[in-house]
Amino acid sequence: MAVKAAILTILLAAATTAVMGNDYNAVPPNKSQLNSWFNQNVRPVNERKSTLDPALVKAEQSRRVITVRQDGKGNFKRITDAVNSVPSGNSRRVIIYIGPGEYREKITIDRTKKFVTLYGNPNAKPTLTYGGTAAQYGTVDSATLMALADYFVAANLIIKNSAPKPDGKRKGAQASALRISGDKSAVYNCRILGFQDTICDDRGYHLFKDCYIEGTVDFIFGSGTSLYLNSELHVIPNSGGTVIAAQARESSDNTGYSFVHCVITGAGGNTFLGRAWMSRPRVVYIYTSMSSAITTAGWSDNFHPERDGTVFFGEYGDFGSGASKSGRAKFAKQLTFNQAKPYMTLSFIRGSSWLLPPPSL
To answer: Which residues participate in catalysis according to the annotation?
Structure first.
């Protein structure tokens, strides 16, 4: 009976892996192993049909490519025109290949246009730029690129808001580069540039991998449930202080931001890893290199001491001059491995049902 029980346990474990993929395998502590870990856990669609969303499998099996080139040699000269050509209710993967150059457009991918990929050449990334501000559009709608549809992918792009840096005097000077509101969306190898509110990581499950993100205040904000892997978070000095993450959780839901094997660069010594913009934010940094840009306290309750007991701000395995535990805010947590593990697996973003390797052409 003991042998039968052991065999049954093995079979159940194998079945669980088949259903869940390798969601529960934690990211290795050695950064040099990250890409091999990712490739082992995020397999191509033809190897994972049984675990992926059926609609996603169908979309990937009938993909089409359209091109945008400023020299007129593509299907379109403007990204907006290419996006507009995607039908409402789209059910197939549409890869919009964007040629090199600077595209001055405010781009919106409507919620009805699922399965859209914006793809640039990794050796000649196109720049998507616009100067929208909160005064003109409202903060979340000021973004140069607004990806509102599910199953969106961006790869090898420079996404920029060209509005000037807020000076503390102009009202509505916040200016987002990217708003990502669709569920099950991924951003690979992109540079995302702005000042205040650079990324509106709005809602849904998201992955950011191998990205460069810069800003001043709240330059990653919103209600998303997002995993940031191997990304550089660059702090631009600001006289009024700087904040990386303003996550907007207000209840016991599952949203939050996890930064794993990231690098924080910049200077100034007055940057908070996160602030309690809302009452129950959840932000975790794991195996992250922190420069002297980070303030000793590390975290801010946003002058709301009543939120000290409701925030979830955590650190595990971080290093560098900005990662010192001495002087850290008392409401922040130094996590154990078991406490940190849920935030360094693909299960945090439910990756087994939707996450695919970076696209290639």
So the answer is: 218
